[in-house]
Specification:
Layout lengths: L6 H6 L4 H13 L11 E9 L5 E8 L13 E5 H8 L6 H10 L13 H6 L4 E5 L2 H7 L4 H9 L3 E4 L6 H10 L10 E4 L3 E6 L2 H22 L14 H15 L4 E5 L2 H7 L4 H5 L9 H4 L4 E2 L4 H19 L13 E4 L3 E6 L2 H22 L9 H8 L2 H9 L10 E5 L4 H12 L3 E6 L4 H4 L5 E5 L5 H15 L4 E4 L15 H26 L6 E5 L12 H21 L5 E7 L10 H10 L4 H5 L10 H12 L10 E4 L8
Parallel strand pairs: 5-6, 9-10, 12-13, 12-15, 13-14, 15-16, 16-17, 17-18
Antiparallel strand pairs: 1-2, 1-4, 2-3, 4-7, 6-7, 8-11, 10-11
Helix pairs in contact: 6-15, 10-14, 18-25, 20-21, 21-22
Length: 656
């Protein structure tokens, strides 16, 4: 475990307790082997003056929703220390009441809710308190002789706490265990199946105690569990099978979801273990993970539909076995799955959630494999895990509800996505919650969107192999395809029919017509497995109102429009909608440079502004305007519309 302490930087904080607390919290948060994705909590005890000028002792404790890796001063909730200490003296207190009383004891109502471990932090008589879910320590505790191994490893240096439910019960248990206890005699606490606490009046010492305790556990594993997950070549998985699995999982979940395939060599090896099914059926690495991962993953064999159906029934039974009458059952869907000899799949509502699942499953597989070398992997009993999954605090969140974005869990493909209408469509889809594969012939597309929900793919839409590879990448990265914006196109140089060059003609047909047909043809099998699948093709005003010298462009776009009409008739039986928009005079694209605009305006005897607004509504049509129409057509507003042609041109007299 690397000690990341920088004394020079620490001294630059001039002894400011809260700044030091932020600093050491971030040091802990940088290491996934200590905490992941909001896990763990830290605090510091200090003082502040109230409105009457009186000094009050305050516990600044990590707030709900903050991540130790990125936490700021605003992420620490200030709570009156004396109130928290008095709460610990109560024999019983529901967690909902605990949260309410902690909130009432805050000195800043705008701060986040204090950690559910705030009372525990308060009763530990040291200024700085650190709590992590260190993999190495939890791996050792999750074995048949875990407590004995911990005692042999640390001796009297730590207080060992048998597993109890987090929150008030945990705080009260430790409160009772430590009456007349000499806290200075220990370096920390090991919470069985849960994690590690360290503490000191000095920020550096508390941090370094954590590093030392965890390093001791890591050294023990290096000596007694020497074999890491070996590497192994995976058995290929068909992209269509991934999309089919995603569809089945979403039906269990009751909403669109994303799915990502992990074919790392470690994941592939673990998925090929002979006793893999038994191992993953025992429970998560720590009970905290169950909120993200559920109790177990699903093992997906060739008959994956039956496997998922069985998972749902088993979850029903799990709920029936332990639920109280007032508890609301969560969805029956797994959060991750194993494909024997092929790797793992993560399921989630957005990219952040599937990344979290992927990270947790990766750490869990490594911990399980090492624990097996210490005598066997064991997790908490199902009843204890159920109590965490159906924690009253989590049930309260359900009652409040969280409104999802319109396209959350949906996967879109946009072609010609580097700039103009295509780029605007990508950005608008992101605003609506979708994930997007952004395709463009320009290699700059790979870095164009610095957003984890965008997969930039270099793709020549006229090449069938490029399209096939782009679809394969999309499905393996996001799970399927629900929405398609076929936008890629070119505007050939002006040529009259009698002077037309065959190459110019054919190039326009290839890009503006045939490529759209190829893309649609390859995408339909995935759209049939999508959620409210919808396609929008970008046409042109030149279809209803062509101009001289633009036959290569106009004919291709007219053919494209006719293809959409036929496709609507053919795809309707699958629930796939397909419509076309006809933009005109969209000047904020790479084609329309300032020089070109100036020449065109002068040709018509207009200023540039007059030229841009030369339509019935006297308004400029921008790429974002077209994108908003396209996204509306992909969504519920046009859910009963297919085969339609919609102009977006500010009102063109020739079209009207």
């Amino acid at each position: 475990m690397k000690n990341r302490w920088d004394q020079t930087f620490a001294e630059s904080l001039n002894g400011d307790l809260l700044k030091l607390r932020v600093y050491t919290s971030r040091l802990l948060g940088q290491d996934e082997d200590l905490v992941m994705h909001g896990g763990g909590n830290t605090s510091v005890k200090g003082t502040e003056k109230n409105i009457f000028g009186e000094e009050e002792e305050i516990l600044f404790v990590k707030g709900s929703g903050w991540d130790l890796a990125t936490i700021e001063e605003a992420g620490f909730a200030p709570v009156k220390l004396e109130v928290l200490k008095r709460l610990a003296t109560l024999e019983t207190l529901s967690d909902i009441e605990m949260v309410r009383n902690q909130r009432m004891a805050m000195t800043n109502p705008a701060a986040p809710n204090p950690s559910v471990e705030a009372i525990l932090h308060a009763i530990i008589p040291f200024r700085f308190v650190d709590h992590t879910h260190a993999d190495a320590v939890v791996t050792i505790t999750n074995t048949p002789n875990g407590e004995q191994q911990i005692r042999e490893l640390y001796g009297n240096r730590v207080l060992i706490i048998p597993y109890v439910m987090p929150g008030f019960i945990l705080a009260r248990t430790i409160f009772e265990m430590t009456q007349d206890f000499d806290w200075s005699s220990i370096d920390g606490m090991i919470l069985m199946n849960h994690g590690v606490f360290t503490f000191d009046h000095d920020a550096r010492k508390s941090y370094e105690k954590m590093i030392e305790l965890v390093s001791t556990a890591e050294s023990y594993l290096d000596k007694h569990a020497t074999e890491d997950l070996p590497k192994r070549t995976f058995q290929p998985v068909d992209a269509k099978q991934i999309a089919e699995i995603r569809k089945e999982v979403a039906q269990l979940w009751g909403r669109p979801v994303l799915c990502r395939l992990n074919t790392s060599q470690e994941a592939v090896f673990f998925s090929a273990l002979p006793n893999m099914v038994s191992l993953v059926s025992r429970g998560p690495l720590t009970p905290d993970h169950i909120i993200r991962t559920k109790r177990t993953p699903v093992v997906l064999n060739e008959d994956f539909r039956t496997d998922l159906n069985d998972f749902g029934h088993q979850y029903d039974q799990y709920f029936a076995d332990y639920a109280q009458p007032d508890q609301t059952k969560l969805d029956r869907s797994p959060r991750w799955g194993l494909l024997p000899s092929s790797g793992t799949l993560s399921f989630g509502q957005n990219v952040k959630s599937i990344q979290i699942i992927n990270d947790i499953s990766r750490h869990t597989m490594q911990a399980i494999y090492r624990a097996e070398q210490l005598g066997g992997w064991t997790a908490l009993p199902s009843k204890d895990l159920f109590e965490v999954e159906y924690w009253s605090l989590e049930q309260e969140k359900l009652k409040k509800g969280k409104k999802s974005q319109p396209f959350e869990g949906r996967v879109a493909i946009v072609t010609g996505a580097l700039s103009g209408i295509g780029a605007a469509c990508v950005e608008t889809l992101l605003e609506e919650g979708a994930v997007v594969s952004a395709l463009d012939i320009n290699p700059g597309i790979i870095e164009r969107f610095s957003h984890q929900s965008v997969l930039g793919i270099e793709c020549d839409v006229t090449k069938e192999e490029d399209l096939s590879n782009a679809l394969d990448q999309t499905v393996r990265h996001f799970g399927g395809v629900d929405l398609l914006v076929s936008n890629a196109g070119i505007f050939p140089s002006s040529k009259t029919i009698d002077s037309m060059d065959d190459e110019i003609w054919q190039r326009s047909i290839d890009v503006n017509l045939t490529s759209h047909r190829r893309l649609l043809q390859q995408t339909v099998p995935f759209l049939r497995l999508g959620f409210d699948p919808s396609v929008v093709i970008v046409g042109s005003k030149n279809v209803p109102a062509p101009g001289p010298g633009a036959s290569a462009y106009s004919v291709a776009k007219a053919g494209l429009t006719q293809m959409v009409r036929v496709a609507a008739l053919e795809l309707g039986k699958y629930g796939i909608r397909i419509n076309i928009v006809h933009p005109n005079a969209v000047y904020d694209t790479d084609i329309w440079t300032d020089e070109v605009l100036k020449k065109r305006a002068e040709h018509y005897g207009l200023t540039i502004d007059e030229y841009k607004t030369n339509n019935v509504l006297k308004t400029e049509v921008k790429s974002k305007d077209v994108a908003h129409l396209i996204i509306a057509m992909l969504g519920n507003t046009f859910s009963k519309t297919t085969g339609a042609q919609i102009p977006i041109d500010g009102g063109n007299e020739r079209v009207i």
